[in-house]
UniProtKB/TrEMBL annotation:
<feature type="domain" description="Nuclear condensin complex subunit 3 C-terminal">
    <location>
        <begin position="539"/>
        <end position="820"/>
    </location>
</feature>
<comment type="similarity">
    <text>Belongs to the CND3 (condensin subunit 3) family.</text>
</comment>
<feature type="region of interest" description="Disordered">
    <location>
        <begin position="905"/>
        <end position="997"/>
    </location>
</feature>
<keyword id="KW-0131">Cell cycle</keyword>
<dbReference type="Pfam" id="PF12719">
    <property type="entry name" value="Cnd3"/>
</dbReference>
<dbReference type="InterPro" id="IPR027165">
    <property type="entry name" value="CND3"/>
</dbReference>
<feature type="compositionally biased region" description="Acidic residues">
    <location>
        <begin position="1062"/>
        <end position="1077"/>
    </location>
</feature>
<dbReference type="Pfam" id="PF12765">
    <property type="entry name" value="Cohesin_HEAT"/>
</dbReference>
<keyword id="KW-0498">Mitosis</keyword>
<feature type="compositionally biased region" description="Polar residues">
    <location>
        <begin position="920"/>
        <end position="929"/>
    </location>
</feature>
<dbReference type="InterPro" id="IPR016024">
    <property type="entry name" value="ARM-type_fold"/>
</dbReference>
<feature type="region of interest" description="Disordered">
    <location>
        <begin position="1011"/>
        <end position="1077"/>
    </location>
</feature>
<keyword id="KW-0158">Chromosome</keyword>
<feature type="compositionally biased region" description="Basic residues">
    <location>
        <begin position="950"/>
        <end position="961"/>
    </location>
</feature>
<feature type="compositionally biased region" description="Polar residues">
    <location>
        <begin position="937"/>
        <end position="948"/>
    </location>
</feature>
<dbReference type="InterPro" id="IPR025977">
    <property type="entry name" value="Cnd3_C"/>
</dbReference>
<feature type="compositionally biased region" description="Basic and acidic residues">
    <location>
        <begin position="1037"/>
        <end position="1058"/>
    </location>
</feature>
Length: 1077
């Protein structure tokens, strides 16, 4: 008899596709449909052995790839045979051996997609993902079933399953029809944006078909909270190798196809990222763009960052640049920009050799700036005349002319601005050149027609050339007074004095007090005069803002600022025009940063402006408020400040009621900085930030999400006190999230699960991660007991009867994720053990998963801290004053009376046998922990010897009225190691206040039964009125303890049980119950 050939699962992926296909076709051809079904049955049987294999098994992964490869090979052979026959009938494609095989395999997998086991669902989705690219043509019903299955699994609760379902779904986008709702594209876009798992978002991003409707969704992931997703945007979606491989192949992500705004956003977000890996991916991308696109002239720093990145990654470009005298002859915007960024790069890298060869002579550059500025003024004068002559003409040619004029004006301003930026890095050892540049810049800011974009650049040069801050302030104040003076400037100026920038503060009066004509009241001005006065005030306020931004001294040291404050800034704050009032507020805020007394007097003004200002105008005011709080923290948020709590409450109120995403993000950044700096320690603020981070309402506010995703780890790992605050708010946040889940069960809202929130808190409060940070900071200590306290809070919360099953399960599973150090304070570990013991005694867990997780955690604690728990006496523990609150909490807990109701409703189920509950002093081993020696050595056990446990009996203990089903099962299955059968001690009610509450609870049950009996009597007259009363009497008789047994047990075991009570109390309770009956 020939030996049987055994095909193992491990060897199956090595089988040749050809051999398997030959076996398949021969079986189908020789035995017909029966042979084909036999092959399919054998194939599915072997596939069924693979589905329960957990993720990560390489053999199972090879099998899944083999099934996908075989599907591809089988369809290719079927297509070749059809081409040889010349068969063009599409109807026969669905009735081939390959089509029938694929249909049966898919239908088999669809059944497993709804399996209860998550491993099976994962393998099913993995197999479908491998097959789906090679399915060929399938019938309409099978496609609809496939589509519905994948869309359903995209919302699976397990992350690996969602990943595989997303990959599979993305590969059938081309077969989707527009009338099918929701479309596959919509599902993928929603997954990319809102899935809580970064792994799923990344898989959806990499497999999302890019088009005009989807590429913006892909670009939005540049602000994702996870760095791997952000990196995938630059490295995979905007693939730099794809742009250089085929320059003619231009798709939506090609740099030439991207809009300028999109390119600016890519550079800004990428080079501004905090992760070095993301920056490296962006730098590589920009380096490939240099040869494809031209660097655009922009007003922001985006192009500058891009060019600086190119200089770092493409050294060949940096070496090829030279700046001779001919280069500065005719400067275009591009040439000026390149020279300025090159100089800044050399200064940043301290490359003095290249810097010396690139910098022009100071005097020559000053004349170039003067010439360019004069040309700009002449150009603007000519265009003003043309506009006056052509006023009222509206046609396409005129619109084109105006557009060209605007572009020309922008180019000229850009060139002047780049030369002024370059001037800051010049060497002013040449005194002639320095004086020339100083006078030129001063004359430029004195011009009314100076463009707004050049004001800040001129002030930078002026600050560089000024000998001190006082000199800078003096010059700017003089210019402001000159601009506001409507009389002849020449009469007030000293023509014989040449200002060379070297005059010191002591040689010049602080303020020039000359007789000036009083300003004309606004009511007496014409409309043209009022407009010109407002424009002049705007220019002066811009100068003040620029100057104050560059001042670091105090307001008292620069008395010349008082004139600007009273004549310009305060009147601007009182104006009704929004633009003037906004600039006035910014100027006042900058003054408050260098004047503490002014900040104290003006802070309420800014808070009032936040209440009255429209939402879109709150941003500058909020910046002022947070700047003042950061600079003068001790006077507003310090421990001695009387208004600190009110300020925090106000900011929280604005944060919770703001509707604009930019305002929310700014408030979030400000409060995060204040908390990170230690200025705010209020747990309410931290709780609000956490709620904002996990709230679905902020899912679209990527700026806020990214800020908080960076803030929470840095905040928690930087200080043990911060981790402690995070631990204290966990239960509150968890309960609030559970309420939101419960309220939104009927609504289609994608909320983060309580289990995920628990994992976030476990990570943020992990002492091990704080230890890594503390090693680099001398004197920094780590509190390793934070997770023990978190476990205590979790166990306390498990006493809540109203908690849902899923929420209780999430808390129990979270216990296993906590870090338990080797050394813990005795009080803390005993408190935790006491709470866990009372959970089993008074609130036993019903759910199997919760119970197993809880028992596992309790067993680990008992084994690890066995020595600290072995001498624990609860009576002595009660005497500690600082634990009175804990025992009051425990004494207020009354065991569930659900078991009482069950006994009263069905007493015959127990028969005459009176079952005792588990001992209150037994360890967690009675619920599933290891038996034997481990049980005897655990805390709360009466003794370590079986013989000693069988000698005497404990003090009298009352039986419970009933016991749960889980406890019944545990009691029946529990076996003792000793050959003797020991009757376990019974559980009793807690002492003191618990006794009275127990009597009240029993009375309530009896009254409820009595009331029910009366209703039943009224509804059913034939029923005996004493039936329910007899049930109660039988139940109470079953709960009583024989007095003789009590007397025998009383003298042998001391009163050391946590739940011990006295015989007198029990007799009193029994007597009272009898009276009630």
């Amino acid at each position: 008899m020939p030996a049987r050939t055994v095909i193992s699962l491990e060897n199956l992926p090595q089988t040749n596709f050809v051999a398997l296909h030959k076996l398949h076709t021969e079986t189908a051809s020789h035995h017909g449909s029966a042979g084909e079904r036999a092959f399919e049955h054998a194939f599915l049987n072997m596939l069924g052995h693979v589905l329960p294999v957990k993720k990560g098994n390489p053999v199972a992964d090879r099998l899944m790839r083999f099934i996908g490869g075989y599907t591809k090979y089988m369809n290719e052979r079927a297509m070749e045979e059809a081409n040889k026959r010349g068969d063009d009938d599409d109807a026969e494609d669905f009735d081939t051996t390959a089509a029938r095989f694929i249909s049966r395999v898919l239908r088999f997998l669809f059944k497993g997609s709804v399996a209860k086991d998550k491993v099976v669902r994962y393998r099913v989705m993995q197999c479908i993902a491998e097959m789906i690219s090679h399915l060929g043509e399938i019938d309409e019903d099978l496609y609809k079933l496939l589509r519905e299955t994948l869309i359903e699994r995209v919302k699976d609760k397990e992350v690996p399953i969602r990943v595989q379902a997303t990959i599979a779904l993305s590969r059938i986008c081309g077969a989707d029809e527009e009338d099918e709702k929701p479309t596959i594209i919509d599902v993928l876009q929603e997954t990319v944006q809102y899935d809580p798992s970064a792994e799923v978002r990344r898989a959806a991003l990499l497999n999302l078909p890019l088009g005009l409707l989807t590429y913006q969704t892909a670009l939005s992931r540049m602000r994702d909270v996870d760095p791997s997703v952000r990196k995938a945007v630059y490295a995979s979606v905007l693939n730099p190798d794809k742009a250089t491989a085929d320059p003619d192949a231009i798709d939506v992500t090609h740099p030439r196809a991207l809009k300028i705004a999109d390119r600016e956003r890519i550079v800004k977000n990428g080079l501004g990222d905090r992760e070095e890996a993301v920056k490296a991916a962006v730098a590589k991308l920009i380096a490939t763009w240099v040869d494809i696109v031209q660097i655009e002239k922009v007003k922001s720093t985006i192009a500058e960052d891009a060019l600086s990145s190119v200089f770092k990654t493409r050294v060949d470009i940096l070496d090829s640049l030279t700046f001779g005298d001919d280069y500065w002859t005719d400067l275009s915007p591009e040439r000026a920009f390149l020279a300025r960024v090159f100089v800044d790069h050399c200064v940043a890298t301290k490359d003095d050799v290249r810097l010396e060869s690139a910098l022009p002579v100071v005097t020559m550059l000053a004349f170039k700036i003067q010439e360019a500025y004069n040309d700009l003024n002449a150009f603007l004068a000519d265009q003003t005349m043309d506009d006056f002559l052509k006023e009222g003409i509206e046609d396409e040619e005129e619109d084109e002319r105006r557009q060209m004029v605007e572009e020309e004006r922008t180019d000229r301003e850009f060139v002047i601005g780049e030369m002024l930026k370059l001037s800051v890095n010049l060497d002013y050892a040449d005194e002639i050149g320095r004086r020339k540049m100083f006078q030129l810049v001063k004359d430029m800011i004195s011009e009314e027609d100076l463009p707004e974009s050049l004001v800040a650049r001129c002030l930078d040069v002026l600050r560089k050339l000024s000998s001190s801050e006082r000199d800078l302030i003096r010059v700017v104040v003089e210019v402001v007074h000159d601009l506001r003076d409507r009389n002849d400037d020449e009469e007030q100026a000293d023509p014989n004095r040449a200002d060379d920038g070297e005059t010191t503060f002591g040689e010049t009066p602080a303020t020039v007090k000359t007789a000036r004509a009083p300003p004309k009241p606004p009511a007496e001005m014409t409309e043209e005069e009022r407009a010109r006065a407002d424009a002049m005030d705007m220019r002066c306020l811009s100068l003040c803002i620029g100057m104050l931004e560059r001042v670091n001294g105090t307001f008292e040291e620069n008395s010349t600022l008082e004139g600007l404050l009273g004549e310009l800034i305060i009147p601007a704050v009182k104006r009704k025009e929004a633009a003037l009032r906004e600039k006035g507020l910014v100027s006042l805020g900058l003054c408050c940063l260098i004047a503490r007394r002014m900040a104290l007097n003006s802070f309420q003004l800014f808070l009032n402006q936040l209440q009255s200002t429209p939402e879109k105008h709150k941003i500058p005011v909020l910046k002022i408020v947070f700047d003042i709080l950061m600079v003068h923290e001790g006077h507003f948020l310090g421990p001695t400040s009387p208004n600190g709590d009110r300020i925090v409450e106000f900011l929280m109120h604005v944060f919770e009621n703001s509707e604009l995403d930019e305002v929310q993000a700014l408030l979030c950044k400000g409060m995060a900085k204040l908390m990170l700096s230690g200025f705010i320690t209020d747990e309410r603020v931290l709780r609000s930030l956490v709620i904002a981070y996990i709230s679905p309402e902020t899912a679209d506010n990527l700026e806020l999400r990214q800020c908080l995703s960076y803030f929470f780890p840095v905040y928690c790992y930087s200080s043990a006190a911060n981790q402690r605050r995070m631990q204290k708010i966990f239960i509150t946040v968890f309960k609030q999230l559970c309420e939101i889940h419960q309220q939104s069960e009927d609504e289609d809202i994608d909320l983060i699960s309580p289990a995920q929130v628990g994992l976030l808190f476990a990570d943020w409060t992990d002492p091990q991660k704080a230890t890594v940070v503390a090693k680099g900071v001398p004197g920094r200590e780590v509190d390793e007991s934070i997770h023990i306290d978190l476990a205590t809070d979790i166990v306390k919360e498990l006493f809540d009867d109203d908690m849902r099953k899923d929420d209780r399960k999430a808390l129990c599973l979270l216990l296993g994720k906590l870090y338990i150090p080797d050394t813990i304070d005795d009080d803390k570990i005993r408190t935790l053990k006491l709470l866990m013991h009372n959970i089993r005694a008074r609130r036993p867990l019903r759910d199997l998963a919760s119970k197993n997780a809880f028992v596992k955690f309790e067993t680990a604690i008992s084994k690890k801290f066995e020595k600290q728990l072995e001498d624990f006496n609860e009576e002595e523990y009660r005497k500690l004053e600082h634990l009175q609150e804990l025992f009051e909490f425990l004494d207020d807990i009354i065991p569930d009376i659900d078991d009482v109701d069950e006994m009263m409703e069905a007493p015959k189920k127990r028969g005459s046998r009176k079952r005792r509950s588990d001992s209150i002093v037994t360890d967690a081993t009675s619920q599933g922990a290891p038996s034997g020696d481990d049980r005897s050595n655990t805390p709360f056990s009466t003794t370590s010897s079986v013989a000693s446990r069988t000698k005497g009996k404990g003090k009298a203990k009352r039986r419970r009225l009933s016991t749960s089903d889980d406890e019944d099962e545990d009691t029946e299955t529990e076996k003792m190691d000793s050959p003797q059968t020991v009757k376990p001690p019974t559980r009793v009610m807690p002492k003191r206040s618990a006794a009275a509450k127990t009597r009240a609870a029993v009375s309530k049950v009896i009254n409820l039964v009595g009331s029910d009996s009366e209703e039943d009597i009224e509804e059913t007259p034939s029923r005996k009125p004493t039936s329910n009363l007899k049930k109660v009497q039988k139940a109470m008789e079953a709960a009583r303890i024989d007095e003789k047994d009590l007397a025998e047990q009383e003298d042998e075991i001391p009163h050391d049980s946590i739940m011990d009570t006295t015989l007198e109390e029990e007799d009193y309770e029994d007597e009272e119950v009898n009276n009630l009956l």
